[in-house]
Amino acid sequence: MAAMFTCCLGCCGDGGSGHIPLKEMPTVQLDTHHMGVWGIGVATQKVNLNQVPLGRDTNSLVLRHDGSVYHNNEEKNRLPANSLPQEGDIVGITYDHVELNLYLNGKNMHCPASGIRGTVYPVVYVDDSAILDCQFSDFYHTPPQGFEKILFEQQIF
Description:
Blueprint: E1 11-13, E2 16-19, E3 27-34, E4 37-43, E5 60-64, E6 68-71, E7 74-78, E8 90-95, E9 99-104, E10 107-108, E11 113-114, E12 121-127, E13 130-134
Antiparallel strand pairs: 1-13, 2-12, 3-8, 3-13, 4-5, 4-12, 5-6, 6-7, 8-9, 9-10, 9-11
C-alpha cells in the first residue's frame, strides 16, 4: 500500500524547514497563504536545511516557488507558465520512491522529476515572509490512486 502525505504545514517566513522519514509513497498538498520564497519536495538526511533554496545538491528534489523543480542544481522540470501557484492554491506532490509528480488544485500537472536516491523525507522551507499550511491527513483534494496519508513508523516491542 502506498502512503500519502498532504502538506499544509504551518510555517511562516524566515528560513523554516522540516522533515519526517517516508516509509511509503507520499502525496503533499500545500496551501499557499502569502507568497514569498518557498519550496516543497523530498530530501535525504544529509541535506543542508540552512541553505535555501533547496535543490542545489544531490540531497534534495524540490518544487520551488517559481514553478521550477530542482535537483543537484539542475532544473529537472517546470510547471507550465500559466500554472504557477498563486495565493490560496493547493500544491500537491506525490513521490513513489522514483518520481516526484506535481498537482495544482487537484489537477495533475504532468511535470515529473526524478534523480534523488536513498531514504528520503518530506521537506518544506519558507523564506521572505511566505506563509504555507501543510496537512498530513484530511486532504483538500482526493489523493491520486495508490497514495494515502503518511504512516509513521512505530516500535511495537
